[in-house]
Design brief:
Layout: E1 12-18, E2 23-24, H1 41-48, E3 65-66, E4 74-75, E5 79-88, E6 94-104, E7 109-111, E8 119-122, E9 127-135, E10 140-151, E11 157-169, E12 172-180, E13 186-194, E14 200-209, E15 213-217, E16 220-223, E17 226-229, E18 236-237, E19 242-251, H2 253-256, H3 259-263, E20 267-277, E21 281-286, E22 290-291, E23 300-306, E24 310-312, E25 317-325, E26 331-337, E27 343-346, E28 351-356, E29 361-370, E30 374-378, E31 381-385, E32 390-394, E33 398-403
Parallel strand pairs: 4-11, 24-33
Antiparallel strand pairs: 1-5, 2-3, 5-9, 6-7, 6-8, 6-10, 10-11, 12-13, 13-19, 14-18, 14-20, 15-19, 16-17, 20-21, 20-22, 23-25, 25-29, 26-28, 26-31, 27-29, 30-33, 31-32
């Protein structure tokens, strides 16, 4: 009959603890009315309790800190810190101790050990301590693998491992919307929602533009010569609350002059978000490159450089148009102006504009008048390429407010 030998106990003990900030202690108030049998006894006990706030004893507000009672939640972008201790529980000296800490994610395995060198010896009741830090960059299951190898006095090599599994959660929900302006400007609206269970202090939300753009933040207003954020002095984001951030991206001058280049740009930049929670734990997230749907201008793009907001009825007004060749061939253009029921063009229709090379532009000063009051749409421009006998129609280019000539229009 074969007997299995008893499992040998290890001489070393491994302990792993997560390092987190303490939390504010909250008391549970027990009180009653003065006419009840205890009278003012419970209220007096709460007033004498050092953990309560004077004057707010029954509001569960504490002013003392308490150590974490559980592992807690870990969110993407935060720093995971852990304390690893290996203690010699035996009465003999252990040699060649090597402690290794790896973090296994769904895509990679990371070595978090501060040192990969072995400790020569560890006497009884002594320990080896190490603190590891890692900025969490993946969502999902993470496994902290701690391995210990050592040699006994008898020369026997020993080895054991321990696994600690935890989940990394998503702290923020980020949604983006793009608006393409006629002037090649791009407006980005970023909606950021706090999907954790605690409030966040939003330290920074900025947009790092791509190489072709300059960015201007539109999240502040000018009050008495000072720039004040639209979110107030305390930019806290409560759980499940959403905040909108707005940015304007303008193409750099060297790229704006090349219509063919800026036309196809889809990469805008990336958001950099920094926040703090609880007692100052810092988190940071950077989105991947944000991409928009590039506007389709066709072969010829017509945009307005200047137009008045308000004009007088039956009085001429001026606009400036910019025509850009977005194709890869030279065009010979003819301009035609077609009147509508309310908008009438002044000038000669069917005039030659000449040749326009690829990525080149020309500006036209045009004169119109309106015979109808109200908000009128400017339409009726036609461009014909005589090379290909192709006509490009431009309607609803812009809108202008037409008022009676008795009303003075400010220039």
């Amino acid at each position: 009959m074969e007997v299995n030998p008893p499992k040998q106990e290890h001489l070393l003990a491994l302990k792993v603890m997560r390092l987190t900030k303490p939390t504010l202690f909250t008391n549970i108030p027990v009180t009653c009315e003065e006419k009840d049998l205890p009278g003012d006894l419970f209220n007096q006990l709460m007033r004498d309790d050092p953990s309560t706030v004077n004057g707010a004893e029954i509001l569960m507000l504490g002013e003392m800190l308490t150590l974490p009672q559980n592992f807690g939640n870990i969110f993407l972008g935060e720093t995971f810190s852990s304390y690893i201790s290996v203690h010699n529980d035996s009465n003999q000296v252990v040699k060649d101790i090597l402690v290794k800490a790896d973090l296994q994610t769904s895509s990679q395995r990371l070595n978090l050990s501060a040192s990969n060198a072995a400790v020569a010896e560890l006497k009884p009741d002594c320990c080896i301590d190490d603190v590891i830090h890692h900025e969490v960059k993946e969502i999902g299951t993470h496994i902290l693998v701690c391995a210990v190898s050592y040699t006994t006095q008898g020369g026997e090599k020993m080895y054991f491992r321990k696994f600690f599994k935890f989940q990394v959660l998503k702290p923020l929900d980020v949604k983006t919307k793009f608006y393409n302006a006629e002037t090649d400007e791009v407006f980005l609206e970023a909606q950021i929602q706090n999907i954790t269970t605690s409030p966040m202090f939003m330290e920074k939300v900025s947009l790092e533009p791509s190489i072709m753009y300059n960015v201007a933040e539109l999240n502040s207003v000018n009050q008495a010569g000072e720039c004040v954020t639209t979110f107030g002095t305390r930019t806290y984001l409560q759980p499940m609350d959403t905040r909108q951030y707005l940015y304007c991206l303008k193409p750099k001058k060297e790229f704006a002059e090349k219509a063919g280049i800026i036309k196809g740009v889809t990469v805008i930049g990336k958001l950099d978000i920094v926040w703090k929670t609880n007692l100052g734990e810092r988190g940071r997230l950077q989105t991947s490159q944000l991409q928009r749907m590039a506007p389709g201008y066709g072969d010829v793009r017509l945009s307005l450089e200047a137009i008045p907001d308000t004009v007088n009825l039956e009085e001429p007004f001026h606009i400036t148009c910019k025509i850009t060749n977005c194709s890869e061939r030279t065009m010979d253009l003819v301009l035609e102006m077609c009147n509508t029921n309310s908008i009438h063009w002044c000038g000669i229709s069917g005039r030659q504009l000449g040749k326009l090379h690829p990525s080149s532009s020309l500006c036209l000063a045009l004169t119109l008048l309106s015979s109808v009051q109200g908000l009128q749409s400017i339409s009726g421009l036609r461009l014909t390429d005589t090379f290909l006998k192709r006509t490009y129609e431009y309607d609803d280019i812009a809108q202008v407010c037409v008022v009676s000539s008795a009303i003075k229009v400010e220039s």
